[in-house]
């Protein structure tokens, strides 16, 4: 009980702070949307951009007290809860169709990313494990994958910190660059959403990038990103076995258990709610019951929107300009090359399969 | 999510996202008024 109260006391101030900024950002955005008449200026005042930019300004310009940090860090929790709840909006048949295709694309994307980043890291003579961490981060899902892999391959703390910093720098860059490229190429919501989900490394930044583009794009981004996250265990296991065979990391004794431990459980929640609501919609194909269900799914959509709004504020608050400068040149060069290559490769893939992609 | 979290006894934070998400969906399905957006 004492521990629980201690935890609440530790997290509550930061959580309230992030929630207040999320609500404030949304209200400010709503007001700006109602007073700005020029369409393109109005699009810059979306709730996503205001939350992220507001978070960046507050996080970098104001001296925030340290006791806010634990609560601010909870935005990833809100993000995952938002994704779980989002599962109710998708028919499981659509998830299976798009997810099946997404998984196939993701496998190609991961193999390409790992091969390319590893090669580039070798050219630039980065430490081998730093190269591996970067390739895991670029190939799969950013920070979570790097943290998961660093423990499994016994990477040094500095290497882990470096890899995370590089991923976060590019996450921040993606928020601006990807929507601009998407607009220049005239990409549809579906194609852009998939591209962002395939190419942006960190889940929070990927969802934010999709949301900046359009509300419809986020669903595709989330689904593509879930496919990448779901494969995290396999890639980390591959690296763990590789380094263990070379005597550079501990042996993996129970591979099945290892995979299960690394599997992101919120993906199960997303699929579970998708299955449940698909069954409910099939059981009540019309009439009042279906209308009620549709209304409830709408309410869940709003819940997800709020959870994501908190995430966007957290992404902004966490983006440290000082950290970007401190990251150093070499890993950044590797990062630039890798991200550009992965972005171009996944863009090509998305266009190549565009005609075969089902809609949600 | 992280290896340090997996060493903790009890449910991981990742499982809690599932529990909280499903619980919220259940409450909304039961009739909780929609949050304005």
Summarize the helices and strands and which ones pair or pack.
The complex is a heterodimer of chains A (360) and B (37).
Chain A: H1 2-35, H2 39-44, H3 47-61, H4 69-72, H5 75-86, H6 92-123, H7 128-139, H8 142-152, H9 157-184, H10 189-199, H11 203-213, H12 215-230, H13 232-245, H14 255-262, H15 266-283, H16 287-318, H17 321-326, H18 330-353
Chain B: H1 3-6, H2 13-29
Written description of the protein model:
The complex is a heterodimer of chains A (360) and B (37). Chain A is mainly alpha-helical and 360 residues long. Chain A is built from 18 helices and no strands. In chain A, helix 1 (2-35) packs across helix 3 (47-61) and helix 10 (189-199) packs parallel to helix 12. The longest helix of chain A is centred in the N-terminal third of the chain and has 34 residues, at 2-35. Chain A is globular. Chain A starts with a helix and ends in a 7-residue tail after the last helix. Chain B is mainly α and 37 residues long. Mean pLDDT of chain B is 81; it is low at 1-6. Chains A and B meet through helix 5, helix 8, helix 15 and helix 16 of A and helix 1 and helix 2 of B.
Supply the number of helical segments of chain A.
Answer: 18
Distance between the termini of chain A: 45 Å
Number of domains of chain A: 1
| Poorly predicted tracts of residues of chain B | 1-6
Described by the principal axes of the CA atoms, the overall outline of chain A is globular
Counting H and I runs of at least 4 residues, what is the number of helices of chain B? Answer: 2
> Main β-sheet of chain B, in a few words?
none
Mean pLDDT figure of chain A: 88
Helix content of chain A: over 70%
Strand content of chain B: under 5%
Strand percentage of chain A: under 5%
Which radius of gyration of chain A do the C-alpha atoms yield?
20 Å
Structural class of chain B: mainly alpha
Unreliable segments of 5+ consecutive residues of chain A:
none
Which oligomeric state applies? heterodimer
């Amino acid at each position: 009980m004492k521990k629980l109260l201690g935890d609440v006391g530790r997290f509550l101030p930061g959580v309230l702070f992030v929630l207040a900024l999320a609500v404030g950002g949304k209200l400010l955005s709503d007001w700006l949307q109602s007073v700005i008449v020029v369409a393109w200026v109005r699009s810059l005042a979306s709730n996503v951009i205001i939350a992220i930019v507001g978070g960046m300004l507050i996080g970098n310009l104001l001296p925030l007290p340290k006791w806010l940090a634990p609560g601010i860090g909870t935005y990833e929790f809100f993000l995952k809860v938002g994704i779980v709840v989002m599962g109710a909006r998708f028919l499981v048949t659509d998830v299976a169709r798009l997810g099946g295709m997404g998984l196939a694309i993701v496998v190609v994307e991961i193999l390409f990313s790992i091969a390319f980043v590893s090669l580039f890291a070798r050219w630039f003579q980065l430490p081998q494990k730093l190269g591996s961490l970067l390739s895991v981060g670029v190939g799969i899902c950013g920070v979570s994958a790097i943290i998961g892999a660093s423990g499994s391959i016994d990477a040094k703390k500095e290497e882990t910190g470096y890899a995370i910093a590089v991923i976060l720098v590019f996450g921040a860059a993606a928020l601006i660059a990807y929507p601009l490229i998407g607009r220049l190429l005239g990409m549809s919501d579906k194609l852009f959403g998939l591209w962002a989900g395939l190419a942006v490394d960190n889940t929070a930044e990927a969802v934010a990038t999709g949301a900046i583009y359009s509300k419809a794009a986020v669903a595709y981004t989330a689904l593509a990103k879930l496919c990448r996250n779901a494969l995290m265990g396999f890639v980390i296991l591959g690296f763990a076995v590789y380094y263990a065979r070379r005597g550079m990391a501990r042996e993996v004794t129970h591979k099945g258990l290892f995979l299960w431990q690394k599997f992101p459980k919120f993906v199960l929640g997303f699929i579970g709610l998708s299955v449940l609501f698909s069954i409910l919609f099939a059981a009540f194909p019309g009439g009042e019951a279906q209308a009620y269900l549709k209304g409830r799914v709408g309410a869940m959509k709003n819940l997800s929107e709020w959870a994501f709004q908190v995430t966007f504020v957290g992404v902004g608050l966490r983006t440290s300009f000082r950290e970007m400068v401190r990251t150093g040149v070499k890993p950044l060069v590797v990062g630039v090359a890798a991200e550009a290559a992965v972005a171009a490769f996944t863009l090509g893939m998305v266009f190549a399969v565009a005609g075969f992609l089902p809609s949600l | 999510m992280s290896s340090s979290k997996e060493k903790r006894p009890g449910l991981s934070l990742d499982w809690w996202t599932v529990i909280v998400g499903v619980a919220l969906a259940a409450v909304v399905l039961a009739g909780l008024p929609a949050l304005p957006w």
